[in-house]
Write a structure and sequence with these properties.
- By secondary structure, the protein is mainly α.
- The protein has one domain.
- Helices cover 86% and strands 0% of the residues.
- The protein starts with a helix and ends with a helix.
- The Tol-Pal system is composed of five core proteins: the inner membrane proteins TolA, TolQ and TolR, the periplasmic protein TolB and the outer membrane protein Pal. They form a network linking the inner and outer membranes and the peptidoglycan layer.
- InterPro entries: ExbB/TolQ_transport, MotA_ExbB_proton_chnl, Tol-Pal_TolQ.
Length: 232
């Protein structure tokens, strides 16, 4: 049979009996945790979709399909992202410069510049939400610690009015204060792990796209040199 002291130490009771400041801290941390899990799910789907789309486009690109055909298909796809979007803008710039009769060097340099811009733009879109995860992971423990310090401070202030201090009078205040730190860690740990995971995954995707851009430039350079020699 539970004693009165034990029954008073249920987590739900401690949360309800906590001071308004500690309760506000707990609520903020709970909302931060829920939002971080939403971001984790969103980023997981986004990274998975991007990897699949990039792989699909690379297969088409290296299957021997005509660049004009790939360009026209990309032009018709208003929702193009990733490699297809980078390819579309890069090749579009290549065609534009060739039409202006720019030199081979100017054409390649202009194409490289657009490809770099496309890489940065698509990577920024892919990594949306990572900054928030990092903030939750770094700030949540300190917010929880603030709640703990505030709760312990209130607990000791309350003890000043008690003639005889016992474990039964000290434990509830300390316990409710520590819950804030526990919730802070609960919010922070998944956010930090997810941030590290998606950062690593994002770097891998960026490396693949950058390699594709270099190979595409090399291919266009060969075509540009070949067409120049034919004209000569």
């Amino acid at each position: 049979m539970a004693t009165p002291i034990q029954s008073s130490l249920h987590i739900s009771d401690l949360i309800l009996q906590a001071s308004p400041v500690v309760q506000a801290v707990m609520l903020i941390l709970l909302l931060a945790s829920i939002y971080s899990w939403y971001l984790i799910a969103k980023l997981h789907l986004s990274y998975k979709k991007s990897a699949q789309q990039d792989e699909h486009f690379q297969k088409m690109f290296w299957s021997g399909a005509e660049l004009n055909t790939l360009y026209n298909n990309a032009q018709l796809n208003s929702k193009r992202t990733g490699l297809e979007d980078i390819f579309y803008h890069g090749l579009g710039e290549f065609f534009k410069l060739k039409k202006r009769q720019a030199t081979s060097t100017q054409t390649i340099e202009g194409t490289e510049r657009i490809l770099r811009v496309g890489l940065s733009r698509d990577q920024s879109q892919l990594e949306q939400g990572l900054g928030t995860l990092a903030s939750i992971g770094s700030v949540a423990p300190y917010v929880g610690l603030f709640g703990t310090v505030w709760g312990i401070m209130n607990a000791f202030i309350g003890l000043a009015a008690v003639d005889q201090v016992t474990l039964a009078t000290v434990a509830p205040g300390i316990a409710e204060a520590l819950i804030a730190t526990a919730i802070g860690l609960f919010a922070a740990i998944p956010a930090v792990l997810a941030f590290n995971h998606f950062t690593s995954k994002g770097e891998a995707i960026y490396s693949d796209r950058a390699l594709f851009a270099e190979e595409m430039v090399a291919l266009l350079q060969r075509q540009s040199v070949g067409s120049t020699q034919e004209d000569a």
